[in-house]
Structures are given as structure tokens and as C-alpha cells.
Amino acid sequence: MIFLDQLTRFFDPFALVIVFGGTLLVTVFRSTHADLGRACGAIKLLWKADPDADAAAARAAVGRVREMAEARSIMCADRIDSAHRFLVRAGRQLSDSQNSAEFVRWATDDIETRRTRHEAVAGVWRAAAEAAPSMGMIGTIIGLVQMFSSMDDPARIGPAMAVAMLTTLYGVFLSAGVAGPIAGRLERLSETEIAWQQAACKQFELLARAELDHMPVKLRPTLKAVL
């Protein structure tokens, strides 16, 4: 009971509305509807994502494609079996490309699009982390104004001072304890994912250069039809 009584002292609905409501409002204004939806959906990745396992699976998939290319042809790359949709799409593109330059253009565009989308999602949480302390400062000013305007009534000074202090606390907690770490984690996951995707595409590019760039164009569709 004593613990609960102490805990309730840190709860103030008015302060919560100022900080959390204000931060949410600022974040919504700074982001698109699509980015907001992706930002909420990305929360589950904080626990499910395993960058090391993804990178290892990508290396294994690239190895299988290399074996298929050596045994038969690079045209078999579309048969790659992987849980990662990016690798499946990359394999299909590799088998359909006429030369390495065509595959490189696809890979560059796809990865840059993915990078931009990741940055936008992390940016939503980064915007919340930046807005929260400001909302806390606004609440602090509101509380101080209420306190100074009630100096003739000691009973009203305490609640006003509590609002001033709690809004600062909520702002710091929301920024440094919630939104900031989520944004940092998403940025780290994005960097790791982009890194193994670029490495995989680099290997695919080398395979395309070794086979497609030295194969007469007129033979490529015939070979693919046979396979």
C-alpha cells in the first residue's frame, strides 16, 4: 500500500495529456499516414528481428545460387528458396536480366527505396523523441504560471508545482526512455539489413558479369526456355 501510494504521486492526468498528447500531435503533423502506420507496425520488429540470422541466411542463399549457376546456369536463380522476399525477388531479377548492369540498376533502386522507407519509419520515432522534451517544457511553464497565480492559496500551489515537475519528468522519460531507443534500434536494424542485402547483390552482380556479360544476347532467351 505504501508503494502504491508513492507511485500514485507520479501520476497526473493533466500532465500526461500535455506531454503524451502534445508529442503525438506534433508527430502526426510531421509524418505521413503511411509512415505512421509503418512506425506502429515496426514495434514488433524490436523483438522479432535477428540481424545476424538474416545475414547468415542470406549468405547461405547466395551460396546456393552460386552452386546452381556453376552447375547449370544463372538463369536458374529464380528457383532460390528463401524466407526473405528480397532474396527471392533478387533471384528472379537476376534470372531475367540481360546483363549485369540491368541487375545493378534494379538492386540499387530497390535498396535505396527500402532505405528511404526505413529512414522515414525511424524518423517518426525520432520526431517523437525530439518533441517530448519540448512538450515537457511547455507543461512546466503552464504549471509555474498556475503556481504563481495561486500564491494567495497555499492549497493550490502544490498541485500546480506537481504539474510543472511531472511534465518535465514525462518528457524526459518519453524521449530518452521510449521513443529515442526505439528510433535507435530501428536505425540499427535498417543498417544491418541494408548491409547484407548490398553484399548479396554484389555477389549476384559478380555472377551476372561472369555469365551474362559474355553470353551472346541471342542465346539468353533460348537458354532460359530450355531450362
Automatic annotation (TrEMBL):
Keywords: Cell membrane, Cell projection, Cilium, Flagellar rotation, Flagellum, Membrane, Transmembrane, Transmembrane helix, Transport. The chain crosses the membrane at residues 13-29, 124-145, 157-179. Belongs to the MotA family. Residues 85-194 form the MotA/TolQ/ExbB proton channel domain. The keyword Membrane applies. It comes from the Bacteria. One of its GO terms (cellular component) is plasma membrane. It holds the Pfam family MotA_ExbB. It is a multi-pass membrane protein. GO terms for biological process: bacterial-type flagellum-dependent swarming motility; chemotaxis. InterPro entries: Flag_MotA_CS, MotA-like, MotA_ExbB_proton_chnl. It is found in: Cell membrane. This is Flagellar motor protein.
